[in-house]
Specification:
With 182 residues, this protein is of the alpha/beta class. The protein contains six helices and eleven strands. A seven-stranded mixed β-sheet has the order 5-2-1-6-7-11-10, with helices on both faces. Strands 3-4 form a two-stranded antiparallel ribbon.
């Protein structure tokens, strides 16, 4: 099971694309409304989350947590004790934490990227404290997955499928959605 945290001001494509990729591949995804049941994205798209943050259960059933970027969505996620607790739980239990766009700064501010390779949206590199910052579309370093932004959301979603299922399942997904390079 994967929790995708949504806070007001989240970047819609960075949330919906990985949700869609994961669900297409049979992975259970639960969207979590941080601050309420109805969450409005950075481009004024309002969605109803599957659950609110008070319903999050931290257990070994979690395969991954995902934090989309966007502003002020990233800052709202970072302020959430539920999100902070979920990341801490994942770190303690070797569970994937995936952040795209500005959201990797949450990991950076927690000191989790020290001596790790990571990427983020241009301009937030200084917040990836002591990370080896690269400009790849998606970076997997241990149980941390970081990505650059909306333009590579399909790449990000595909990598999430790959680490939870397999390269073959991820490539099959790309073929089915008519991705041009597969």
């Amino acid at each position: 099971m994967v929790y995708v945290f949504l806070a007001n001001g989240f970047e819609e494509v960075e949330a919906f694309t990985p949700i869609d990729c994961l669900r297409r591949c049979g992975i259970e995804v639960i969207t979590v409304g941080v601050g309420g049941e109805y969450i409005t994205g950075s481009h004024n798209v309002t969605v109803k989350a599957d659950i609110t943050e008070d319903k999050v259960k931290l257990s070994k059933d979690i395969q991954m947590v995902v934090c989309p970027g966007g502003m002020p969505g990233t800052l709202n996620l970072e302020k959430s004790q539920t999100v902070q607790n979920a990341i801490d739980f994942c770190v303690e239990n070797n569970i994937y934490v995936a952040c795209i766009c500005a959201a990797p700064i949450i990991l950076g501010h927690k000191g989790l990227l020290k001596n790790r390779t990571a990427c983020c949206y241009q301009g937030f590199e200084k917040d990836l404290l002591d990370a080896n910052v690269v400009y790849d579309a998606v970076v997997v370093d241990g149980y941390f997955i970081t990505s650059r932004g909306m333009g590579v959301a399909l790449n990000f979603g595909t990598v999430l499928v790959e680490v939870l299922k397999s390269k073959e399942v991820a490539n099959d997904l790309l073929r089915k959605v008519m991705y041009p390079t597969v």
